[in-house]
Amino acid sequence: MAICLHHFSWLAATAIALSSITTTVAAAEFKVLSVGDGDTIRVTTPSGTSKTTVRLACFDAPETSQAPYGNDARQGLQEQLPIGTGVSLRTKATDRYGRTVAEVLKGTTNINQTLVAAGAAFVYWQYIEGCDRETYSRLENEARLKSLGIWAVPGGIQRPWDYRRGRKAG
Questions:
Q1: Residue 55 a catalytic site member
Q2: Average pLDDT over residues 38-48
Q3: pTM to 2 decimal places
Q4: SS3 82
Q5: First to last CA, the chain
Q6: Per-residue pLDDT for 11 more than 50?
């Protein structure tokens, strides 16, 4: 009898977890048109009537000119989101350039978190509001401990926000 109750509890817990995932993740509302760099994509509605530039939230990828890491980040995003991929967005804000700032979901996969976990990007602590801080922190720390991507260099490469500030000053 205990085995049956244990099995039932596991099934019930799994069903509850799955139902919460399906209620928080909407069906794909957009199609990927292009990848700009390691943290920017262009999407369209399935009907193709509206196009939007999306700045992926919660992290900052190396700039394209931060060779080879910027191109690696862009390629990683292209691999995750090939042109035509259906995605949904968890919108956080609109930035000063008019871009939608969002977490991008491919099915139930959070692409933003996937990129941080792969060492393709840094958590963007200045703009982490509305994001799952604990998860992003854990994923970045795991990538750092495994020396993945940007973490192959001890301490990581120059942070993109510092790199951009240095280029403006120079």
A1: yes
A2: 92
A3: 0.81
A4: coil
A5: 73
A6: no
Catalytic (active site) residue 167: no
**Residue 8: inside a domain, yes or no?**
no
Catalytic residue among 55, 74, 103, 140: 55
Q: Domain holding 109: CATH number?
A: 2.40.50.90
Active-site entry in 74, 99, 103, 140: 99
Q: Which of 63, 74, 103, 140 is catalytic?
A: 63
CA dist list (Å): 38 to 24, 31, 43, 62, 153: 25, 17, 15, 7, 19
Q: Tell me if 51 is assigned to some domain.
A: yes
68 falls within a domain: yes
Domain count within the chain: 1
Better pLDDT: 100 or 8: 100
Query: Per the domain annotation, does 22 fall within a domain?
Result: no
Write the DSSP assignment of 30-44 as a string of letters: EEEEEEEETTEEEEE
- The model's pLDDT over 132-147, given as tens digits with 9 standing for 90+, comes to 999 999 999 999 999 9
Query: Active site includes 90?
Result: no
| Residue span of the structural domain in which 37 resides | 30-157
What's the mean per-residue pLDDT of the chain?
A: 85
